[in-house]
Design a protein that fits this description.
This protein is α/β, with parallel strands linked by helices and 322 residues long. The chain has nine helices and 16 strands. It folds into two domains: 185 residues, L-asparaginase, N-terminal domain (Rossmann fold); 116 residues, 3-Layer(aba) Sandwich (Rossmann fold). Strands 4-1-5-6-7-8-11-12 form an eight-stranded mixed beta sheet, with helices on both faces. Strands 13-14-15-16 form a four-stranded parallel beta sheet, with helices on both faces. A hairpin with an 8-residue loop joins strand 9 and strand 10. Helix 2 crosses helix 3 and helix 3 packs parallel to helix 8. The longest helix has 15 residues.
Amino acid sequence: MKRVVVITTGGTIATRRGPMVGGSVPTLKGEELLALLPRDGIDLAFEEFSNLPSSHLTPANALELSQKVEAVLLSPDVDGVVITHGSDTLEETAYLLDLTLKAGKPVVITGAMRTAASSGYDGVVNLANAIRVAAAAESRDLGTLVVFDEEIHAAAAVQMLFTQARRAFASPDSGPLGRIEGQRIVWHQRPINRLYIPCVHLELMVDLLRLSQGADQRQLRHSIDDGAAGIVIETFGSGRVPPWWIPLISEAISRRSTVVITSRCLVGGLGDEYGYVGAYHDLQRLGVLFANHLSGPKARIKLMVALGAARSVRDLKAWFTA
């Protein structure tokens, strides 16, 4: 019999309305979730990591969770791990786990968009599907997976696209890895270019800036003056900034801040053929790093992990060109 350990962190999947508060809060425990699940011939164990909304979690919490998962997976009796998590920052935790977990056993994150008191509660089916995926031999060596609304997504690709819909998560650039169809798991593709970074601590001084039309440089100036170790900029299109941003990006690099460029667009990589000031060629000339096909929040997580683990500039460059 396969054995799957479910690690709970809180979130909507564990939420119900409390008598002493004006709304729903995470209160469901592992044994209460277990009582709701169908019996699928899988041996389950529940461990609590936290019981918080995911908006309260930090990257440091996520790295601690990664270390706990790694320890659980070392047991020869454990075939896979499922993590229940709030939707708000699920994709960031999933990606940090994907970068920092070396074990090939399946790791699956899931959650819910409806509370346990709602008639449309989706927590049970999402959790049951996540457990089924974690127990499947075909899920090995795929990195951290996200299971939501009967779809399986790679941690690097998945994004939350809807604020309240049950089908909140999708992989807009590549599509899902597979789907759960009844009792069957149907696979369509495998994640490519997965990256492992051996990390025991994070660099927390990493800022994320998003460009908009006519944006001035005040936020960038604050990041430089505050001594940010890393700055991620969500640029226009495939890697373009206003011309008045170029001198400050150059200054940030000269003051030993690592600048990473990604796009504010949901789909597509970086690079263009334009010759005007502020286009891709200018950023490349300055020596920024590029986070192709990563959202801004994920690029920030990657930079936190990379700066925390890097022993040289060569390491950083290698991880951002992988």
